[in-house]
Amino acid sequence: MTALRTDLRRNSLTLFFGALFVAALVGQAISGVALFNEEQRSAGLDPIDIGEYVTTSAFAVDVTENWQSEFLQFLLFVVATVFFLQRGSPESKPLDDAGRETDQEQKVAEFSTAESPSWARVRGWRLSLYSRSLSLVMGTIFALSWLAQSVTGAVAYSEQQMHDLQDPVTWTEYLLLPDFWSRTLQNWQSEFLAVASMVVLSIYLRERGSPESKPVGTPHTATGVEG
Amino acid sequence: MTEARDRRGRLTRGVLLVVVGVALTGCVPARPTSGSAVEVASAFYDAVGRQDGAAACDLLAPVTVETLEGDADEACADAVLHGDVGDTLAARTGSMSGSASVAGRQAQVVLTGDVMFLTVSGTTWRITAAGCDARPDRPYDCALEGA
């Protein structure tokens, strides 16, 4: 029991956000099906249940358009912070550390330790791949989410078109339509604003105990210091 | 340490199995096919051709029936066979074969002599618009359509 509690506590950050994710997704599905059924009833059509609603393109495009932008945000944040700096921000590396850093600093190959991941210990394709594995996985999820948004968005758009007595569109036609780019860019702009705000606000503001903030008493000019 | 990791691994695999299982076997009712959309569209013109207004109206979406009855000020079974709507539809009877484009719960059926729009209600297609003519950069102009 104690071991389980310790285990839960040590993974509580993932569990907390995992639970929030599931709760928000369920809430989105419940409110989404309610809105959908309002429109069905006003047209004199049969309502659908939540199981059917979560398979609709309308639900799928709303989910995936947010997923792609979130994964893009973190992908860019992970990669941009390798090369770009912000004086005074805990989100930035120290001002003289820009770039991929030395093997010694990264503890790879001959500089690895007994506890280093196995792919970090030997030079070769495994080390190259593992050195970029975070951005590769985030980038892959972003690309797949964006692809899913385009496919489900094309279906949802065609559905609305036919509801409005207009011709449906193909996937390739949809990629050039304002609907696809409006959905995409409205999410991107908010993500980029949030990241820029975090980088700048954390220069001057503090959150005691958070690793995303500098320690409260640290000067504004200190860069790359996490609490 | 290893035991805890194994337990986490089993937990993760268990959760994944449940999620995938629910996703694959979820109780999602089957949607009507594009083929059945063409069948409904053809059946509508078949009923109009037989002067069976009631059978034709059974295939219309409720909002389309309401609009037709409101505009014509008579029951759907009569309104669908008479007046401008009846004349337009009668001129297009014989439009029996064609193809359908389906997106989600909406379909467009293109028959040899007409373009029709349908929507899913329950497990069947219902016609929302018929007797439609294309207009550049605007919605189809339909003799029969919901509000």
What does this structure look like?
The complex is a heterodimer of chains A (227) and B (147). Chain A is mainly α. Chain A folds into two domains: 1-55; 57-96 and 133-227, no CATH class. Chain A is built from nine helices and no strands. Chain A has helices at residues 2-10, 12-42, 50-53, 57-83, 103-106, 125-131, 133-163, 171-174, 178-204. In chain A, α4 runs antiparallel to α7 (133-163) and α4 (57-83) packs across α9 (178-204). Chain A is elongated. Chain B has 147 residues and is α+β, with helices and mostly antiparallel strands. Chain B has one domain (34-145). Chain B has six helices and five strands, in the order ααααααβββββ. Chain B has helices at 2-25, 34-49, 53-58, 62-72, 76-79, 83-91; strands at 98-103, 106-111, 115-121, 124-135, 138-145. Chain B starts with a helix and ends with a strand. Residues 1-5 and 14-26 of chain B have low confidence and may be disordered. The interface between A and B is medium-sized, with 28 and 33 residues.
